[in-house]
Amino acid sequence: MTEAQIIGWAHSRFGRSDAEDVESLMAEVIPQALSHAEVGAEDIDGLYVGVYNNGFSRQGFEGALAGMAIPALASVPSVHLENACATGSAALHAGLDFLAAGRGRVALVIGAEKMTGVSSAEVGDVTLSACYRDEEAEVEGGFAGIFGQIADRYFQDNGDQSKALAMIAAKNHANGVLNPYAHMRRDFSVQFCNTISEKNPRLAGPLRRMDCSLISDGAVAIVLAVPEVAQDAPRAIRFRSRVQTNDVLALSRRDPTEFAGARRAWTQALDYAGIDLMDLDLVETHDCFTIAELLEYEAMGLMPRGQGARAIREGIVARDGALPVNPSGGLKARGHPLGATGVSQHVMAAMQLMDDAGGMQLPDVNLAGVFNMGGAAVANYVSILERAK
User: Fold this and answer.
1) CATH of 5-118+215-230, one of 3.40.47.10, 3.40.50.1820, 3.40.50.300, 1.10.10.10
2) Between the CA of residue 261 and those of 50, 52, 106, 143, 349, what are the distances in Å?
3) pLDDT of residue 2 exceeding 80
């Protein structure tokens, strides 16, 4: 199987958008992505739309909204994908599978979410739909409560890691200052992130506000093309490997601090790519909460279990470290519009590979890793990307 390649993209600013709805958010990025890839709407053979929704909007059937936003796409076969916080990666994989099956030559992938149109309490309830409601629906604090419990368990096993979490938050916010697409371009000190205050209250378990990603609106689009088309495109990013693995939904039926599904995804992706983790020049990972990023250091094999804090304390994951993690600011600073996140992570990595990341740019980027997860490491996606031209 010959993988399709990324040949263009567009990324909205994440944050509280004036766009009225998901349709309007899509309308912002679709024309820009087509222009960036130097293709027309008539060239698109398949549309793959990632929107989580589940209560953010009364409008479903989001696959058809792309054709409402851009009428020239109304007759293109379109599918809506949803896979919790990994919705964007699910749409991307579907587009890649469509092209790998020989059913088309060019596909458009869109990830979008309008989260700020409902109250914070409603956001908490919507996001709880990504957990096992039969057992976890009454957890206080919404999805933050779920990760607060995970952090509690990790702290019980490995000691208080509050400062390490604060260092992760501070790192990602410092990186986010350099990202023009980020929801919050503001630097915060480790001391601020580590201190309980009116502006940084405790929210769930040991997690404070600065440990939690932001409620954001945003949309991102990627154009995929088969290699024969990509060779004539202005840019091309190749998938050295891509993997999806799953784990049990209910936290009661597994060790929630192990992130075993994420570990399997990383192991397989690195093996298929024929590389070691430290061959990567950067990783964009899923820091919905700072405890998630810490656990992902262990799941990707950067640190042994229980020692994830070493990666941030020793500077390994800093911009100038041996393996920069979230040079875009991650979900923590860039924002986390659920359906858009997975697509956004791939665009952030692609920009680095094309030496087109502006102030975010790292030196000598040849290989990039992306990790996007749905739920508490239930649906796990890893991509290894490299520049094709």
Assistant:
1) 3.40.47.10
2) 22, 21, 31, 19, 22
3) no
